[in-house]
């Protein structure tokens, strides 16, 4: 009975989405009309059960099964997003409540936005919980991403001939607020985000729908302008942690390969998570005569990372600008580091910031995106021998030691284990699973090792993630790399 589900959804919104009794009359009528129902359900609903729900999944399932139409993935997302949006507070109401909560505590404000986003199904908590995460022996966090839906053939067929529009310009544009979506662009009717003032500009805070870590949020500019690392953006990171000291924040670099997937809209990523990198010690310390208050160290980490620690944010920013200035011009052909080819810059940084008490801890990770004949995908990018595990760019989340691996591995790795277990020859397993072709070298290597197949595959996965981080390090963790890194830092902090 559709009108019963509508009644349950309205009650859910009253208990989870701040729906006011007066507005409930209005919203009920909107939903009745939407689903062609002539009158509301008058019977009993399971109020206690609904009140206790952590997520709306079972109500959404009930709605979709009662609705009885054959919807494709996009139509289904769009319908759910529309209904959950109707049940949610208006964006301006979320903004007001967020600000009210902020006045009592920043944590309460971010929790409020998270609760709204989870309760209205924008953050799909159940799907996020499906992700498998484990910690490797050396502290890397490795996750197989099962939460992001993969397109099926029907969805792909719909894309053929679908009209491309430039509205909204990208998934991070402000105009996604309430956007219906289409075959090419995700429905965003139930998204809620709040404005922040960062460096005198309006930016917005939203949660990631497929959070890769606790309270994974995205902070994005009001304007659709390309990613850039400069003084103004660095100081926005500091503004953010001053406002929300319980969150870390970082920016991807402003170059392809070393950056994230979105380069044409300025944004940061943050959340409440201490990444593997942040648990590492400093192995080498330096002093800057110009900025004696800043403790400078090299992090004991795969990627070449300088840590700056101080209560004085201006000193850290000034020092970072010095480092950037020197790094953008730094060449060391012996280590394959070349800063420019013609007008094209290859050096960039990935900046990450957290606050510990009154001190700022700023991580400046040096990156380079140059490609050559040997490594057409990038010299400091996952090398081809690792592409069967991961070939996408290594952005800040992975560079900090949290690996998000593709969902296909959930199917492929157990197959590899079965092949090892049953001593199947390549010709035979490839006939059944041609997509295991890139795994042949790994399988043949593991076949020669002692141990049970599951443990061998697991260890190989960990070694691969570590190998990828070694690939992305501009100064390698060997004698030549270390001494060049030290020399570079000594010059850069002068
Ligand atoms: Zn945009």
Taking strands numbered 1, 2, ... along the chain, how are they ordered across the largest sheet?
3-4-5-7-6-13-14-10-9-8
Helical amount: 25-40%
The share of residues in extended strands comes to: 15-25%
Uncertain residue segments: none
Task: Calculate Rg over CA atoms.
Answer: 25 Å
Class by SSE composition: alpha+beta
Task: Give the helix/strand layout.
Layout: H1 2-16, H2 21-34, H3 47-51, H4 57-67, H5 73-87, H6 91-104, H7 106-119, H8 125-130, E1 132-135, E2 141-144, H9 153-159, E3 194-198, E4 201-207, E5 217-221, H10 231-243, E6 248-250, E7 267-271, E8 282-286, E9 295-299, E10 305-310, H11 313-327, E11 340-341, E12 344-345, E13 347-356, E14 359-368, H12 396-399, E15 402-405, H13 408-421, H14 426-432, H15 440-447, H16 453-472, H17 479-492
Parallel strand pairs: 2-15
Antiparallel strand pairs: 1-2, 3-4, 4-5, 5-7, 6-7, 6-13, 8-9, 9-10, 10-14, 11-12, 13-14
């Amino acid at each position: 009975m559709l009108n019963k589900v509508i009644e349950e959804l309205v009650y859910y919104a009253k208990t989870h989405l701040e729906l006011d009794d007066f507005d409930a009359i209005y919203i009920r009528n909107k939903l009745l009309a939407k689903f062609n129902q002539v009158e509301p359900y008058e019977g009993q609903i399971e109020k206690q059960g609904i009140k206790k729900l952590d997520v709306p999944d079972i109500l959404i399932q009930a709605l979709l099964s009662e609705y009885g139409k054959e919807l494709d993935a996009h139509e289904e997302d769009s319908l759910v997003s529309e209904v959950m949006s109707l049940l949610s507070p208006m964006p301006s109401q979320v903004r007001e409540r967020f600000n009210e909560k902020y006045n009592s505590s920043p944590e309460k404000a971010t929790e409020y936005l998270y609760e709204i986003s989870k309760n209205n199904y924008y953050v799909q908590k159940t799907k996020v919980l499906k992700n498998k995460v484990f910690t490797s022996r050396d502290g890397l966090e490795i996750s197989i991403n099962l939460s992001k839906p993969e397109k099926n053939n029907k969805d792909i067929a719909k894309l053929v001939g679908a009209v491309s529009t430039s509205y909204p310009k990208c998934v991070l544009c402000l105009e996604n607020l309430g956007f219906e979506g289409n075959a090419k662009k995700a429905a965003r009717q139930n998204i809620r985000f709040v404005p922040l003032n960062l460096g005198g500009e309006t930016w917005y805070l939203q949660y990631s729908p497929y959070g890769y870590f606790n309270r994974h949020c995205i902070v994005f500019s009001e304007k659709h302008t390309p990613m850039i690392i400069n003084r103004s953006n660095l100081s926005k990171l500091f503004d953010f942690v001053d406002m929300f000291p319980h969150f870390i924040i970082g920016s991807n670099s402003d170059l392809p390969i070393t950056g994230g997937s979105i380069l044409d809209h300025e944004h940061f990523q943050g959340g409440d998570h201490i990444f593997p990198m942040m648990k590492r010690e400093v192995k080498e310390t330096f002093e800057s005569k110009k900025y004696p208050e800043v403790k400078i160290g090299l992090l004991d980490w795969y990627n070449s990372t300088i840590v700056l620690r101080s209560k004085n944010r201006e000193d850290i920013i000034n020092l970072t600008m010095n480092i950037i200035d020197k790094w953008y011009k730094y060449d060391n052909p012996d280590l394959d580091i070349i800063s420019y080819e013609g007008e094209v810059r290859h050096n960039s940084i990935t900046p990450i910031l957290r606050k510990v008490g009154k001190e700022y801890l700023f991580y400046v990770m040096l990156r380079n995106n140059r490609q050559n004949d040997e490594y057409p995908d990038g010299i400091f990018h996952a090398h081809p021998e690792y592409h069967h595990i991961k070939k996408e760019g290594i952005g800040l989340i992975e560079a900090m030691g949290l690996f998000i691996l593709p969902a296909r591995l959930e199917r492929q790795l157990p197959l590899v284990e079965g092949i090892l277990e049953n001593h199947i020859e390549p010709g035979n397993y490839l006939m059944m699973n041609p997509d295991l072709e890139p795994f042949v070298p790994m399988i043949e290597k593991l076949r020669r090792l002692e141990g049970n197949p599951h443990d061998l595959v697991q260890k190989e996965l960990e070694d691969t993630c570590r190998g990828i981080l070694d690939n992305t390090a501009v100064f390698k963790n060997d004698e030549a790399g270390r001494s060049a890194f030290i020399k570079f830092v000594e010059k850069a902090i002068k």
